[in-house]
Write a structure and sequence with these properties.
The protein is of the alpha/beta class and 865 residues long. The chain is 43% helix and 18% strand.
Length: 865
């Protein structure tokens, strides 16, 4: 082991070992192996740019599970792929073109799509590089893209199948429209934030009367599309308006007064303006009461010909002019401040416009019912369980899914129209054909100039098929037979409906099987102040930069250490530095073993020393706890368990024992077990150490997960000795003995433990800083007493004034009590809890816990002085 460097250098090893794994086919499963299979489908990264820290967390969890299962004898498949991300990718490419002085209209559809493909190839390679740098064991031989030819064919097949079953239809409804993207959006692609706004009170004149009806609205610019005023039939203020009509201000159009219990008499004035072409609930009322639908906007949210004198103006300009005219006519009664929800496109942050539009929809109720049942019956388990409520809420209140998008990048809708037989306004299917292949001619009139629908499908319409189309469906391929259904899905809770629920629906509908049995939701990553990571805030570090600074293992392990199951992750570079220091600790431990135990076998001898027996029992208990945590997908607990075991039990205690009690026999065996257990979290350094020690297999990936270690030897003496040393260290700290000052102790104990201590004096002298150990003599002079089971130890306080020490400790207790009360009051103060960042609150809680612990130790020591 002469070539064992004194420090670990991740930059010198990581790329080498990833190439080694890939070249040896260690990521590629053999469907004919006969082993039990374990499959994870990667949540498809969008080809819009680089992977983020969120992807790092998500993919690290999957890699840990894949490597753990491989070590447990499973044939593992981690399916690699990427999503074409329709709107997201088109937006960034349009922005790029705009910066170059051109746009998609100038290029035309064909050339624009070619530009997007160039973008895809560029950023797909960036994503591949990031995945390799992180050490993720994805199967590159099966990599797929949602716009690959075969995948696209199955997307079209599913569209046609849903249409044939009556689960897909074209209809005119209110949809979310993004004026910037020029496309419809589903409800789940809209982000809503509360902003300060105004409530405008507008007087509407009653025809043939001096009466006025005041309505309250947050969007006065839409009033030019009003087709009614609605009031509650139980509202006595408006019963006299039955059969009356209203003169719509500015537009001078007559509109009816309608009565419906939908209206809340307590909101505003109790009178509601109805703009059915630009409000989802108004649309429902219009259908119910037979009202006219007047669309007043173009695709870019400027006013169309139905807006009269406002044609060509945008929404803000119209609002300004309408309010001015209302004020001039004395019809603007008042305004008041009002906080209102602003719905924005999740991709470009443009305020969306609810508007009536003819789109394609999937009927979701029939698909949702089996998906609800699969979770209710436990065939699919969600982790943590609390997400079941959100899942159920979505599916119990599911609405039909608008799947058509007015884009050029994506799967073109497989619907063809005859320009002679289909006039575009007909609700019938005459002259319209849904087909997996372009029809030769119209089946009605024989016209051969069939026109394909211009729209493309929502990105999620292709990604909901991901678990089974990638494996060969609908063909009964070898992969489909062996690796479907998959076992585990790892994702963020924010796409529980967008993707998770829809995959379950699609899997059951098209394969008759659930697509996976466990869904693991991980928290969101936020910065130290609790803010969502975003490039605009400048708080989202580039994973590659962190890897080059700290190493991939350090980043992976650091993130898992701070990722709880039930709350968001607060990230800082300190997190990664903890991972880096852990890697260095492991490296130094391995180097010590390589130097001091070079000739030792990596096995367990028949006769064990007490220290060997103790660490083997600790290892056995660690393996048991880690296996339990894996069963519950509690990776944060696994990381903490392994961190504590390796750093403290193995390095701080056992390896120190090996220096002082040289008869220990199992360091090499334990190192092998440790690096196998750590391999899923730290793949690079563990592979490097495995190869340096020549532990047997071609790669650590081909090793077997450690089994239970049955240790029958009594380890009580070592446990008691370790506890005694820890307590002496506490005394050193409380009474502020200098590190090099040797203590004198008197010990009273059983004959058996006295013999053990006497035979292991170098251990207590070195690890507790003890110079003199005496047994059973009378104690004279000031001392601190340590009382343990069967042990009483007196630490002599030579050179200290007992009265002064008591007073000093009393003063410290008083200080600690004050700080504890101060922090306790802060942590229950609603004002503080609302304003303080998550990092600040977490730090205060840690200080509180530390103060409580220190206070308890001093109080215990005061009693024993």
């Amino acid at each position: 082991m002469n070539d064992f460097p004194p420090a670990y250098d991740p930059g010198a090893t990581e790329e080498k070992w990833y190439k080694f794994w890939q070249d040896n086919g260690l990521f590629t499963p053999d469907p004919r192996s006969g082993k039990p299979t374990y499959t994870i489908m990667i949540p498809l990264p969008n080809v819009t740019g680089r992977l983020t820290l969120g992807h790092t967390l998500n993919n690290s969890i999957q890699d840990i599970l894949i490597r753990y299962k491989k070590l447990n004898g499973f044939e593992t498949l981690w399916m690699m792929g990427m999503d074409h991300a329709g709107i997201a990718t088109q937006v960034v490419v349009e922005d790029k073109l705009r910066s170059e002085g051109t746009n998609k209209a100038d290029l035309g559809r064909e050339k624009f799509v070619a530009e997007v493909w160039k973008w895809k190839e560029q950023y797909a390679e960036v994503i591949r590089k990031q995945i390799r740098k992180m050490g993720f064991a994805v199967d590159w031989t099966r990599e797929q893209f949602t716009l690959d030819e075969r995948y696209s064919q199955q997307v079209i097949r599913v569209f046609a199948a849903l249409y044939d079953k009556g689960l897909l239809y074209r209809g005119e409804y209110i949809i979310n429209w993004c004026p910037r993207c020029g496309s419809a959006l589903s409800d789940e692609q809209v982000e809503t934030e509360e902003i300060p706004g105004k409530l405008y009170y507008i007087r509407y004149p009653v025809k043939d009367s001096n009466d006025l009806v005041t309505v309250a609205t947050t969007r006065p610019e839409t009033m030019i599309g009003d087709t009614a005023v609605c009031v509650n039939p139980g509202d006595n203020r408006y019963t006299h308006l039955k059969g009356k009509t209203i003169i719509l201000p500015i537009m001078k159009r007559e509109i009816p007064v309608i009565f419906d219990e939908y209206v809340d008499p307590e909101f505003g004035t109790g009178a509601l303006k109805i703009t059915p072409a630009h409000d989802a609930y108004d649309f429902i009322l219009a259908r119910k009461h037979g009202l006219e639908l007047i669309n007043i906007m173009n695709n870019d949210a400027t006013m169309n010909e139905n807006a009269g004198q406002y044609q060509g103006l945008n929404r803000d300009q119209v609002r300004e002019k309408v309010l001015k005219e209302l004020e001039e006519q004395g019809l603007l009664e008042r305004t008041e401040k009002y906080r209102l929800p602003l719905a924005k496109c999740e991709r470009c942050s443009t305020p969306i416009e609810p508007r009536i539009s003819k789109q394609w929809f999937v009927r979701m109720k029939p698909l949702a019912e089996p998906a609800l049942k699969a979770v209710a019956e436990g065939r699919i388990k969600l982790h943590p369980k609390r997400w079941v409520n959100l899942y159920n809420h979505w599916l119990e209140n599911v609405r039909d899914w608008c799947i058509s998008r007015q884009l050029w990048w994506g799967h073109r809708i497989p619907v063809y129209y005859c320009p002679i037989c289909h006039d575009g306004s007909s609700e019938t299917d005459q002259g319209m054909i849904v087909s997996e292949r372009r029809p030769d001619s119209c089946p009605v009139c024989g016209n051969k100039q069939m026109r394909q629908d211009e729209d493309v499908l929502d990105t999620w319409f292709s990604s909901w098929l991901w678990p089974f189309v990638t494996l060969g469906w609908p063909d009964e391929t070898e992969d489909y037979a062996r690796f479907y259904p998959t076992q585990t899905l790892v994702t963020g809770w924010d796409i529980i409906y967008l993707w998770v629920a829809r995959m379950i629906m699609a899997g059951i509908e098209f394969t008759g099987k659930i697509p996976f049995s466990d869904v693991v939701f991980h928290p969101m990553i936020r910065d130290e102040k609790g803010r969502k990571m975003s490039k605009s805030l400048g708080n989202s570090p580039e994973p590659i930069d962190l890897i080059e600074k700290f190493g991939a293992d350090a980043l992976r392990f650091g993130i898992q250490l701070i990722t709880p199951r039930e709350q968001d992750v607060l990230f800082s570079e300190k997190t990664v530095d903890v991972g880096r220091r852990f890697c260095n600790k492991l490296w130094n431990a391995a180097r010590l073993i390589a130097i001091n135990h070079a000739d030792q076998e990596a096995g367990i001898p028949e006769k064990l020393t007490p220290y060997d027996a103790w660490i083997l029992k600790e290892t056995d208990q660690t393996i048991e706890r880690v296996n339990d945590y894996y069963r519950g997908f509690e990776l944060n607990n696994i990381a903490r368990e392994l961190y504590g075991y390796v750093w403290h039990q193995f390095c701080d205690w056992y390896l120190e024992f090996t220096k002082l009690a040289p008869t220990v026999q199992v360091p090499r065996f334990l190192l092998k077990q440790i690096i196998i257990m750590l391999h899923p979290f730290l793949p690079f350094i563990t592979e490097d150490l495995y190869q340096r020690f020549s532990f047997g297999k071609k790669s650590i990936m081909l090793e077997s997960w450690p089994g239970r270690i049955a240790v029958k030897d009594d380890t009580g003496s070592v446990i008691k000795y370790k506890e005694l040393i820890e307590e002496i260290r506490v005394v050193r700290g409380i009474f502020r003995f200098a590190p090099k000052e040797e203590l004198s102790v008197v010990i009273k104990t059983s004959d058996r433990f006295r013999i053990f201590i006497a035979g292991n004096l170098p251990v207590i002298k070195k690890l507790a800083g003890v110079g003199s150990v005496e047994f059973d003599r009378p104690v004279d002079g000031p001392c601190a007493t340590i009382v343990l089971s069967e042990v009483e130890c007196f630490v002599m306080l030579t050179g200290l004034d007992p009265n002064k020490e008591k007073q000093r400790l009393l003063n410290e207790l008083s200080f600690l009590s004050g700080r504890i009360d101060e922090i306790r009051n802060r942590l229950v103060n609603p004002g503080y809890l609302e304003k303080a960042s998550e990092v600040t609150k977490s730090g205060e809680q840690k200080r509180f816990d530390d103060f409580i612990d220190k206070k308890a130790k001093i109080e215990r020591m005061m009693k024993r002085l």
